[in-house]
TrEMBL record:
It holds the Pfam family OsmC. Gene3D superfamilies: 3.30.300.20. It comes from the Bacteria. This is OsmC family peroxiredoxin. PANTHER family: OSMOTICALLY INDUCIBLE FAMILY PROTEIN. Transmembrane segments: none annotated. It comes from Salininema proteolyticum.
Amino acid sequence: MPVIRNARTHWTGSLEDGGGKTAFVSSGLPDVDVTWASRANDPDGKTSPEELIAAAHATCYSMALSHGLTGAGFPPDSIDTQASVEFTPGTGITGITLVCEASVPRIDLDAFTDIADKTKDGCPVSQALKAVPISLEATLR
């Protein structure tokens, strides 16, 4: 049975001068402010669609990698993932970089790299974003 999560944004004004507030309906997390300036220039305490995508991708990748490592017999001690989403005004999202550092007992580098690469292509958010290039830098601690 599918699970549905909801978020909602209320926007007022023009793109460049207006602003909005995004609500995390499903989780009840605090609302966040969004503006064009936070997307194309300085965040100034506000977020952007790209930052929200980066958060979703970093979270999904970490969860999927944990699952893949555990399934291969190497449950991780910790995984830290940063996702960087590149946005070019007038063009759109042009690339995503995942940087992951993991502490995984008893795994060799080749096995870790193989699982990390497969996870990059297979995690659900990567699947949803496959219209843009996604690169991965994965290292063991």
